[in-house]
Amino acid sequence: MSKTGRQAQGELGAMTSYWERSHWPLQALIFLLPLILLYELGTYLYVRAYNTQLPNLQAEVLLSKFLNLFGEASGVYLPGLILIIVLFCWHIVRRDPWKPEPKLYLLMYIESFLLTIPLLVFAAIFMREHAASVTSILQQATIPVETIQGDTLSIETNVAVSSAQSWQAGLLLSIGAGIYEELVYRLILIAIIHTILVDLISLPPYIGAIGAVLGSSLAFGYIHPEAISLGMLLFYTTAGIYFAVIYLARGFGIVVATHVLYDIIAVSSTFLYSLMSD
């Protein structure tokens, strides 16, 4: 084999290895850990600086309500801790290598950025046609601040959802939405639907995969309050399908980073546009 041939084979092997390793739960955990810490620490500092709570993310509240079924679960950082535990246990079960790979994470961020481009184009076309703003769409992923007391949720109505219109709040919500919406609607819900369709109902695996993608995407669209209109439901559901396909094809780390980067770019663009308009 010629030197050129060996080099080509090595490059192909390295690329194949990248596609595989970027799927591994431990690599996803290390890759996402800075985002998890940034969201949790940033939220804490935001509350300290502005003496007000951020609107709670729908996905976080759903997860907290589910955990309350098994007893009191009022920890502020519990959703993030659960994500870390899930990915770590998944890694243990798979028995993948333990080696961190910094170069891998750079490639994963580059890929995630490239995957945001089709969604940004779709969102720009949709918002122009439906006169929707990015900020209002992000706000639909949030609700007024709720505090968990025992087995009940009490709503603090004096906290305005419009606080998400500030860039700092929008940035934190962008990170949080990317992490916890993917945890709930992709990692958890797709697995549940697929298990029901394939393991319980005994449908073919490809039918289970299609059903899991469509079912989780419809839930992702329906949970947003603004999706009462057919157009907005179509937007959220289409975005959900896109994220679901990325999750199944490229793994949890890539889809979270894609979601986060999309939200950050969209919110920052809206913020800059509002400054230029003033």
Automatic annotation (TrEMBL):
A Pfam family assignment: Rce1-like
Superkingdom in the source lineage: Bacteria
Keywords: Hydrolase, Membrane, Protease, Transmembrane, Transmembrane helix
Signal peptide residue numbers: none
GO biological process: CAAX-box protein maturation; proteolysis
Membrane spanning residue stretches: 24-47, 67-93, 105-127, 206-223, 230-248, 254-275
GO molecular function terms attached to this record: endopeptidase activity
InterPro entries, sorted: Rce1/LyrA-like_dom
Domain CAAX prenyl protease 2/Lysostaphin resistance protein A-like: 166-265
Protein name: CAAX amino terminal protease self-immunity
Organism whose genome encodes this protein: Poriferisphaera corsica
Upper lineage: Bacteria, Pseudomonadati, Planctomycetota, Phycisphaerae, Phycisphaerales
